[in-house]
Amino acid sequence: MQRVYDFLKKSGVYYLATLDGGRPVQRPFGTVDMFEGKLYIQTGKRKAVARQMKADPHISISAMCGGKWIRISAEAVLDERIEPQESMLAAYPDLRAMYAPGDGNTEVYYLKNAVAEINSFGAEPEIIRF
Questions:
Q1: 2-129 maps to which CATH number?
Q2: pLDDT tens, 97-121?
């Protein structure tokens, strides 16, 4: 999981795909955090992506960095505790202008049953499960 976290941090921007009524929807994201041995992402409760992950928690993430790309499939699990929200916002202090732990809008999700595949041209894929 550390390898996946490092890849996403280094890429800076990754693309998160959800389903909206059976239709795929993808958008850029930039938050990723490790807390209590789990990989977390963050969004706002009022956003469509939060509603989509609650309706169908199956997500896909993709990113490119240094001539390699990663694809992750996982279930997004909402963690309503304050501690992972605090950890995420400590990692991304600029977000404090829009979010605060326990504000009723900040939501953090950890990835469950995740399978990550790191690829590059001419090399065997690296598969990571967590």
A1: 2.30.110.10
A2: 999 999 999 999 999 999 999 999 9
